[in-house]
Amino acid sequence: MEASAVLAGAADRFVNDAVTALEHRQHPHYQESTAQDRRRYLEDLVTLVVECVRDRHVEPIIDASQRIAAQRFVAGFDIAEVQGAFNVLEEVLWRGVTDLLAGETRVETLALVNTILGAGRDALARTYVSLARREAAASGDEARPGGETAAGAGGAGIAVRTALVGQVGVITLDDPRRRNALSARLTNGIIGALGRLGAEQARAVVLRAAPGMSVWSAGHDIDELPRGRRDPLAYDDPLEQLIRAIRTFPAPVVAMVHGSVWGGAFDLVLSCDVVVADETATFAITPANLGLPYNTTGLLHFLGRLPVNLIKEMFFTAAPLDANQAKEWMVINHLVGSAELEAFTLALGATMAAKAPLAMAVIKEQLRVLTDYQPVAAQVYERIQGLRRQAYDSDDYLEGLNAFTERRPPIFRGT
Amino acid sequence: MGDEPIDVAAVVEARAEQILSRASEELARAHLAHYEATGRGPTEDRLRALLDLLVGCCRSHRLSPAEEYAVSLAADRRGSGYPLAEVQTAINVLEEAVWAAVLEDVAAEDQGYVLGMVSTVLGALKDRLACAYVAQITSHDTPTLRLDYLFAGTEGLVGPS
Question: What pTM value is reported for the model?
Answer without folding.
Answer: 0.53
